[in-house]
Amino acid sequence: MRVMLACGGTGGHIFPALALARELEKRGHKVLMLTDERGARFVKDEIPVAEIPATPFFGRSLGDKLRAGKAYIKGRRKSVELIDEFKPNVVIGAGGYASFPVIRAAQAKGLPYFLLEQNSVPGRVTRMTTRGAKEVYCGIPPARNTLSKTLERKVIVTGNILRKSVVIKDRKEGEEILVLGGSGGARRLNELGYELAQRMPRERFIILTGKRDYEEMSAKPTLDNLELVEFTDHPEELYARAKTAISRAGAIALSELLANGIPSILLPFPYAVDDHQTHNARWAAQAGAAVLIPEKEIERVEIVLKELLQDKTRRELMSVAGKELVPTDAAARIAERIEGCLAA
């Protein structure tokens, strides 16, 4: 089987896509990844990749939308060319605006396609391309009243695809407090982590700052109990050291924290499209695996953190709940379903 796998360039899209690509290749299928310039930087030599023109087209100025429209036309044309060249049997859209022209090209060519949806609120690309999809694989159970009737019929909840390397078998509780805002970092959480490290000198903190804010954070006075990390391809090294985490609630970072049994305080990004991070965080909190704190109540974080640090039993219960919530075999389950659908 020849598989064309398209995704956006953020970590939340590219890492699951890469893990699925490796699973498909392991099963003997040939894979070509399509992504934008950002995503291509994440792809190592073992997975063939082609870049397509793409730019965001939601919630921006008229000028930006016009430029996005031009990029879409170029991306769709490039996708058609690549389809003609690669001759895939199936196309998989792994989310993000860069996958949109590829899915539209697949529709025009009459190719079967499948969708991955990482968040509890289906993204706009998913909603716009559901009608022709064979199945839609959801990483988090969809939030109530977020599915159209068409989408509801096609949803299969598989759990998010996680890289095998990031899930630590029999992980022991670490000694440090991990502060992270996803693959790009989060400025408000970086500031919060620094403030907490100042006020809690007996605790050790690690802040995954993101490349954008690393220089600014490094310019602050050095604290003996604080380590700054700009970016890492191996978050499992940080997860291994964590006693608890303070995090945004992007689907992949959240799923990795839960799968590793790390009790977490979640502060969803308040301006996320469709407020999907709040829905993601609510799913984890309702299962007893995390604490949800809206950013407008950020002053509560220190109180909740101190309570967690003083209550080992609560941390253990949260850890168990998180591990039970997240399956770690999603890539294999999705590959099997795609194979079965195409064989039917």
TrEMBL record:
Provide the coiled-coil residue spans: none
Sequence ranges assigned to domain Glycosyltransferase family 28 N-terminal in this UniProt record: 3-137
Write down a Pfam family by its short name.
Answer: Glyco_transf_28
Entry keywords, A to Z: Cell cycle, Cell division, Cell membrane, Cell shape, Cell wall biogenesis/degradation, Glycosyltransferase, Membrane, Peptidoglycan synthesis, Transferase
Q: Which residues form the Glycosyl transferase family 28 C-terminal domain?
A: 177-321
Q: Which Gene3D superfamilies match?
A: Glycogen Phosphorylase B
Entry's Gene Ontology BP terms? carbohydrate metabolic process; cell division; cell wall organization; peptidoglycan biosynthetic process; regulation of cell shape
Q: Does the keyword Secreted apply?
A: no
Give the CDD domains listed for this entry.
Answer: GT28_MurG
GO molecular-function terms, A-Z: undecaprenyldiphospho-muramoylpentapeptide beta-N-acetylglucosaminyltransferase activity
InterPro entries named in the record: GlcNAc_MurG, Glyco_trans_28_C, GlycoTrans_28_N
Matches recorded under HAMAP family: MurG
From the Swiss-Prot or TrEMBL record, give the protein name: Glycosyltransferase family 28 N-terminal domain-containing protein
Q: Which organism is it from?
A: marine sediment metagenome
Cite the source lineage.
unclassified sequences, metagenomes, ecological metagenomes
